[in-house]
Write a structure and sequence with these properties.
The complex is a heterodimer of chains A (274) and B (377).
Chain A: E1 5-9, E2 20-25, H1 28-34, H2 37-41, E3 43-48, E4 66-69, H3 73-76, E5 92-97, H4 102-111, E6 115-119, H5 125-140, E7 148-149, H6 151-159, H7 166-169, E8 177-180, E9 186-187, H8 205-215, H9 225-228, H10 242-266
Parallel strand pairs in A: 1-2, 1-8, 2-3, 3-4, 4-5, 5-6, 6-7
Antiparallel strand pairs in A: 8-9
Chain B: E1 5-10, H1 34-50, E2 55-60, H2 70-86, E3 90-95, H3 107-113, E4 117-121, H4 136-152, E5 156-161, H5 165-170, H6 172-182, E6 187-190, H7 210-227, E7 234-236, H8 238-245, H9 260-263, E8 264-267, E9 272-274, H10 277-282, E10 289-290, H11 297-303, H12 305-320, H13 337-344, H14 354-373
Parallel strand pairs in B: 1-2, 1-8, 2-3, 4-5, 5-6, 6-7
Antiparallel strand pairs in B: 8-9, 9-10
Helix pairs in contact in B: 1-2, 6-7, 7-14, 8-14
The chains are: A alpha/beta (274), B alpha/beta (377).
Chain lengths: 274, 377
């Protein structure tokens, strides 16, 4: 099993020395000045929580992947242009909450050659409809050359019959990721910061997810249970998954279509992994 | 912040040996000296170093760049190579010339410094490119003679052509035949014209009628795909767009950069800096500053409010125009600022040829898919 990656505030770098880290900050220049070369070695990526800090010169974080975290898609939309040149120097991803205005942000981010991670939460019907538009855009638009998560990884999970689930794809699987709150408490991800989790995170799958599934009867016979494991049932167990299942179904169908096209193009009968 | 690569449009002279009706440049002032070039390059390399940029493209233009001598360019190339080598920067030089002043004396420097390639310009039909006191026909005669002489010496000639109403009326077939058959030009690019600089009679009718221009360009693309693509003829912007849609490394024209202000600047012989040659030569109110009067290009560019207007343009367009809904946002971002400004008097509007571009993108995408299937019809 790979070592756990800890998502920590920049102020805690020393405390987590030697571990794999995702470091979150509001000010990249300040972080850049305070980082030691040794600390830099263990940083998987940096989360930039405020999109304004684009003047980074003579940086030692050259080549370090960056995650630009959008908090308000409407406000942050034009700010993405401040980072146009960053993709030359760092792998860049934009994390976008599924809230009003997110579609334009996703489209601009992909247009700027940034990868995208959607933060779906529990989207209402209108937002799922917009997610379906974004999914279609990701699947069909010829100018899209970067992944849009969770669509991208789930598409290839379906393609390869790989039982990856959304907790893992969305970096919320506590066997791989832990989120350290600003107060130093260990939890699953940013959406759990205000929640006291009673269970030991080491038994997350056997306790927390099991209880979620038990309480959410919709999961019992769900065709996508292996790929989801009640991901959309937090925090509201009564959230209806009918709409989000449509997204997963579209991905499943797209994977099947891809398999057919690939087989036809190579004239092969045997499935080959991508 | 700039990327790994930086481009400089460098005008060592504003003098010119032609007298084209629609020129937007003021042909005055002293040429750039080698000492000035040394100082300029040093500051450009400082700026690149501060931004961790490793590759520099220098696009030499004028005025008419061949008003400088081949000997001047030999010294300039030497100065640049020495300075760049000391900073581990890779430099590529490109030259854009009207070819009127070309002679075989240029061949060695074109081979060594410019990879044996020259970009030139010619229109079909040529109504506006003229020699001083002469006619368009006189210009054509000299241009054709010199281009053929250069081609005979093994020099590749690429051509930029600006269409006008008469070009559209004559049609794509005639333009394609003129360049490929009559002139033996196998690499040409159609640029969308605009009325830059002071108004005069030659600059009326711009922007061109979008519908007619679109029809002309789509016909040209079809002709090229059918007759030129497989023979190695390059017609811009279609060739670059097809490379893009094939997933290859495509260098799209500057009008379709995500933000041209991130990618290049232009410097004239007096050291004035602006976004590109159109701005530096015609619109002093849009200068960013003067490189000979400032020690640091980085500080000059970082602090200049005019440059900030350019930097902010795509962010404004993405909020006020319909660009986010466009299928081709990734390859356009609202188009060219100088075309917007010269048409609407406002930098923060999209390119007036937006509708033409959308059709061109779509056409290139269809041709690309068609060529990929190898049963294009």
């Amino acid at each position: 099993m790979p070592p756990i990656t800890y998502n920590i505030p920049a102020s805690m770098i020393e405390m987590y020395r030697g571990r794999n880290l995702i470091v979150r900050t509001d000010n990249l220049s300040e972080l850049d000045k305070s980082l030691t070369p040794e600390a830099l070695k263990n940083i998987v990526y940096i989360e930039l929580l405020t999109l304004k800090d684009s003047a980074l010169q003579n940086s030692q974080i050259y080549n370090t992947p960056l995650d630009l975290v959008v908090s308000d898609p409407v406000r942050d939309l034009p700010r993405l242009y401040n980072y146009t040149q960053w993709a030359d120097k760092h792998p860049v991803r934009v994390s976008v909450p599924v809230v009003p205005g997110f579609v334009k942000t996703v489209k601009l981010a992909t247009a700027l050659n940034f990868a995208v991670k959607l933060i779906p939460g529990q989207p209402d019907s209108q937002r799922v409809e917009e997610m379906a538009d974004v999914l279609n855009f990701y699947l069909r638009q010829s100018t899209v050359s970067q992944p849009v998560e969770f669509f991208h990884t789930m598409l290839f999970a379906f393609y390869n019959d790989n039982p990856l689930n959304l907790w893992t794809v969305c970096e919320e699987n506590p066997f791989q990721y832990r989120y350290i709150t600003d107060q130093g408490r260990e939890t699953i991800s940013a959406r759990f910061t205000d929640t006291e989790l009673p269970d030991d995170l080491n038994t997350f799958d056997k306790t927390f997810i099991k209880r979620l599934c038990d309480e959410a009867s919709e999961c019992l016979n769900c065709e996508f249970f292996a790929n989801c494991e009640a991901y959309f049932k937090w925090p509201n167990r009564d959230f209806s998954c009918a709409d989000v299942k449509m997204l997963l179904r579209t991905l499943q169908e797209a994977a099947a279509e891809l398999k057919r096209d690939y087989a036809a193009s190579t004239n092969a009968t045997e499935k080959k992994p991508l | 912040m700039i990327g790994e690569h930086f481009s400089l449009i460098l005008l060592p002279t504003l003098r010119c040996d032609a007298a084209c009706d629609y020129c937007f440049e003021k042909k005055a002032g002293a040429d750039m000296s080698i000492d000035q070039l040394k100082s300029l390059i040093s500051k450009v390399l400082d700026y690149m170093e501060q931004n961790e940029a490793k590759a520099l493209s220098i696009h030499w233009q004028g005025g008419e760049v061949m008003m400088m001598s081949p000997q001047w360019f030999a010294r300039a190339g030497d100065v640049i190579d020495r300075a760049a080598d000391s900073r581990n920067v890779n430099v590529r030089n490109y030259i854009q010339s009207n070819m009127i002043g070309y002679s075989k004396e240029w061949n060695p420097i074109i081979a060594e410094m410019f990879d044996n390639s020259v970009g030139s310009s010619m229109d079909y039909p040529n109504r506006h490119r003229k020699l001083p006191g002469g006619s368009a026909a006189d210009f054509n005669a000299v241009w054709i003679r010199n281009v053929r002489q250069a081609q005979d010496a093994g020099i590749h000639i690429g051509v930029i052509a600006l269409p006008d109403a008469e070009t559209l009326q004559r049609g794509a077939e005639n333009l394609y035949s003129y360049f490929t058959e009559e002139l033996n030009i196998t690499d040409f690019q159609i640029n969308t014209p605009f009325a830059g600089g002071p108004a005069d009679a030659s600059k009326t009718g711009y922007p061109l009628d979008t519908e007619r221009l679109t029809q002309f360009l789509t016909e040209l693309a079809d002709i090229w795909a059918e007759r030129g693509y497989h023979q190695g003829v390059r017609v811009g912007p279609f060739d670059e767009l097809i490379e893009y849609f094939r997933g290859e490394d495509a260098v799209l024209p500057c009008i379709w950069k995500a933000n041209c202000a991130d990618e290049f600047v232009c410097i004239d012989p007096q050291g004035n800096i602006a976004q590109c040659d159109c701005w530096v030569a015609s619109y002093p109110q849009f200068h960013f500053g003067n490189i000979f009067k400032n020690d640091s290009l980085a500080e000059l560019l970082r602090d200049n409010p005019v440059r900030h207007k350019f930097l902010g343009r795509p962010g404004v367009l993405i909020q006020k125009e319909e660009c986010p809904e466009c299928d081709y946002l990734a390859i356009c971002h609202g188009g060219c600022p100088v075309r917007a400004y010269t048409t609407y008097g406002d930098l923060h509007t999209k390119d007036p040829y937006c509708e033409t571009y959308k059709t061109v993108f779509n056409q290139a995408e269809l041709i690309s898919a068609c060529l990929a299937r190898e049963n294009c019809s």
